[in-house]
Amino acid sequence: MHFILPMCLALASSPVMGQVAFVLPMDNSTVRPSYQIDVTDKKTTHLIFPYEIRYADLGSKEIAGEAVEKAGNVFRIKALSSSPFMETNLTVVTADGRLFSFLIHYRETPEALTYDLTKTLLDGAVSKSAKVSSGSQARLADNLNRQGELALHSRRKIRHVGYKAQGISLFLKNVLYKDDVMYLVLGMENSSKLDYDIDYLRTYVKQMKQVGESSATQDVPVEPIKTFDASERVIPRREELTKVIAIERLTLEADRRLIVQIGEANGGRQLSITIGPEELATARPL
After folding, report:
1. How confident is the model at residue 209 (pLDDT cuts 50, 70, 90)?
2. What is the spatial distance between Cα 176 and Cα 188, in angstroms, rounded to a whole number?
3. Three-state DSSP class for 258?
C-alpha cells in the first residue's frame, strides 16, 4: 500500500503524461465545412468568388483548373479523363485571406456547371481586420470593375508627372480612391512610327537609405489588385492608351517614392515615372 502513491506520482511526472496534458482536442467551431462539386471531362465547371483568387491547390492530377486570366475572381475546373476517380479536393484562397474548401467528385452529367459564391460568405460579414488589410468589400468583383471603369474615364487632374523617351510617353493623369483601394490612372502615348508592345507593367516603392557616407536603394513590389484594361498590350503608333492600376491604398514617407514602370517586348524602350507623397496625399475620392 505504501508503494502505490510514489508510483502514481512518478507516472504523473513522466514525459509521456506531460505531453498528453498539452494536447488539446479540436473544437467544432474550428472546423470549416467543404462544398461538394461534381465535374466532368466533357464540360468545364466555373466557380465565381467574391474576391480575386490569390492561391489555388488541386488535390489530384485527375483534375485540372486555373484562375481565368481576364476575370481574376473566376476559377475553371475540369476532369482530365472520363474515368471516375476517387474523391479529391480543391482549396482556394482569395484576396481577403478567406479560404474556400471543396470536395470534388466525377459525374458524367453534373447538375450544375456554374457556382456563384459572391453572395455566400462563410463568416457572414467581412471582418474588421479583413477590411483593414485587404481593401474591404471594394475588392468585390462588381464594385471593383465599376470603380475601375469610372477611373478610366475620369478627367485628367495631374500634369506634372511624366516621362518621354524615343517617341513614347508615360504620364500620370489622376490618383483616385474608394474605400481602401487606390486607382492610378496612367496615360501612354506613342508618337513614334512603330507600335509599342507592352511586355510588363509593374509598380514598386523605392526607398532611399543613407548608409554612412553612401546611399542604397531598396525596392518593395506593390502587387496590383487589378489592371484596367490588362488585355490591351499594344500602344499603336500615333495613338494613346489609358490604363488604370488598382492597388491597396497607401501613403508614402518623405524618403519613399512609388515607381510605375513599363517595358517593351523585344525592345529597349523602357519608361518609368516617380510618384511622390504629395500626389498620393491629394488623391481624389471616386
Report:
1. low
2. 18
3. strand
Angstrom distance (rounded) from CA 185 to CA 246: 9
Boundaries of every domain in the chain: 30-134, 144-285
Instruction: Give CA–CA dist 140/121, Å, rounded.
Output: 12
Give the pLDDT mean for 7-18. 50
CATH superfamily for 30-134 is SARS coronavirus X4 (2.60.40.1550)
The alpha carbon dihedral of 28, 29, 30, 33 has a sign of positive
C-alpha cell at 175: 490618383
Output the CATH code of domain 144-285. 2.60.40.1150
Spell out the residues 6+ positions from residue 37 whose beta carbon is closer than 8 angstroms to its own. 45, 47, 77, 90, 102, 103, 104, 105, 115
pLDDT of residue 32: 74
25: three-class secondary structure by DSSP: coil
Instruction: Taking residues 160-177, report their average pLDDT.
Output: 95
**Collapsed DSSP state (helix, strand, coil) of residue 28:** helix
- The residues, any chain, with a CB within 8 Å of residue 32's CB and separated by 6 or more, are 99, 101, 122
Tell me if 30-134 shares its fold with 144-285.
yes
How long is the chain? Answer: 286
Q: How confident is the model at residue 122 (pLDDT cuts 50, 70, 90)?
A: very low
pLDDT band at 210 (very low <50, low <70, confident <90, very high): low
Mean pLDDT within 167-188: 93
Cα-Cα-Cα-Cα dihedral sign, residues 155, 157, 159, 162: negative
Those residues whose C-beta lies under 8 Å from the C-beta of residue 88, and which sit 6 or more positions away, are 58, 59, 60, 62, 63, 103, 104
Select from 181, 129, 135, 144 the least CA-distant residue to 285: 181
Q: What's the CA gap between 187 and 264, in Å, rounded?
A: 16
Does pTM surpass 0.85? Answer: no
